[in-house]
């Protein structure tokens, strides 16, 4: 755990924090949009169909992107019973949102040459560092959120099968997800 704290330089905090906030906002929007397209208007009514990161982030997910470079959106209340097609539609919704998040990161890296050519020379190194941080964050975000547990996106596929008290969408579930992210960072992504 101490080694994680040594990696937290001010530049790293700004790069990973800002890239993570953008990825979280994009993924939250994509997930709410996919739910809306699949028939659940709940996230739209909850104000989640927006690119505003405040609607999608909580303190634990922000800590996750800064400390562990792993992120998730604030748990969203998506009801598989509201979706036409049931569990199959939930799986499609999850995969669409994660694919869109991953694709945005890949598209940013593919457009790197153009973006760099438009960047003033004084900001060149910081812009390139941010693009790499953004791409890394979107890759890790999509991979991490494939796990069907806690506050992660794929958990929507199993949430209906859990006991009522384990279906939480609050800060406790997000806090437990942060513990999981820190464990993965320490054990896998060193």
UniProtKB/TrEMBL annotation:
Q: Which InterPro entries match?
A: Metallopeptidase_M50B
Enumerate the UniProt keywords alphabetically: Membrane, Transmembrane, Transmembrane helix
Superkingdom of origin: Bacteria
Q: Which residues cross the membrane?
A: 12-34, 54-74, 86-105, 141-158, 170-189
The entry's protein name is Uncharacterized protein
What organism is listed for this UniProt entry?
Pelagibacterium luteolum
């Amino acid at each position: 755990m101490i080694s994680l704290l040594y990696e937290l330089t001010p530049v790293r905090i700004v790069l990973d924090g800002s890239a993570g906030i953008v990825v979280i906002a994009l993924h939250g929007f994509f997930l709410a949009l996919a739910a809306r397209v699949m028939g659940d208007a709940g996230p739209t009514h909850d104000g989640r169909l927006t690119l505003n990161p405040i609607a999608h982030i909580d303190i634990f997910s922000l800590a996750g992107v800064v400390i562990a470079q792993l992120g998730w959106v604030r748990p969203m209340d998506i009801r598989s019973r509201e979706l036409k097609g049931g569990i199959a539609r939930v799986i499609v919704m999850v995969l669409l949102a994660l694919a869109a998040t991953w694709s945005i990161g890949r598209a940013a890296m593919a457009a790197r040459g153009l973006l760099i050519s438009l960047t003033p020379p004084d900001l060149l190194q910081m812009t390139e560092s941010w693009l790499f941080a953004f791409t890394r964050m979107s890759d890790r975000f999509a991979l991490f959120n494939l796990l069907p547990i806690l506050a992660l996106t794929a958990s929507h596929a199993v949430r209906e099968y859990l006991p009522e008290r384990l279906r939480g969408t609050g800060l406790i579930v997000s806090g437990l997800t942060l513990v999981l992210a820190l464990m993965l960072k320490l054990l896998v992504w060193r």
